[in-house]
Amino acid sequence: MTPLLLTIALAGLLHIVQFVVASTMANMDVGPSYTTSPRDRDPSRPMRNVTARMLRAYDNNVQMFPFFAAAVLLIHVTDQVTTLTLGAAWVYLAARALYIPAYALGWQPWRSYIWLVALACVAILFIASLI
Q1: Model pTM?
Q2: CATH topology for 3-130?
Q3: Which of 63, 66, 69, 99 is deepest in the core (most CB within 10 A)?
C-alpha cells in the first residue's frame, strides 16, 4: 500500500472509531431502548452536551470523508503523488483526528480553524490533480 492510500485507510478507521465512541456515549446517555428503536419519538432522557457534540462531529466527518477519499484516489489514479499532495493528505488526517476532541470539548474558535485546515487540504488535493 502506498503512503497516500494509507491515509484513506487510516481516515476510514478513524471514522469507525469515532462512530463507535459517539454511539456508545449516546447509548449510555439515552439508553438502548431508544438507540435501538426507530426513533419516532424524542428520547425520554436528555443527552449530555459532549455526546451531542460527538454525534455532530461524526456527522461532519460523514460529509467530509467522501471528498477526501475522492481527492486522494484522484491523485493516486492519475499518478500525481508529490510531497505537497502526500503532505496535504497527512495533514488532513491529523486535522480530522484533532477535530474530534476540539468539537467534543467546545474549543472555540479553534474547532473551526481545524476544520478549515482539513478543508484546505482537500482543496489542495483537488487543485493539484488539475495541474
Answers
A1: 0.91
A2: Four Helix Bundle (Hemerythrin (Met), subunit A) (1.20.120)
A3: 99
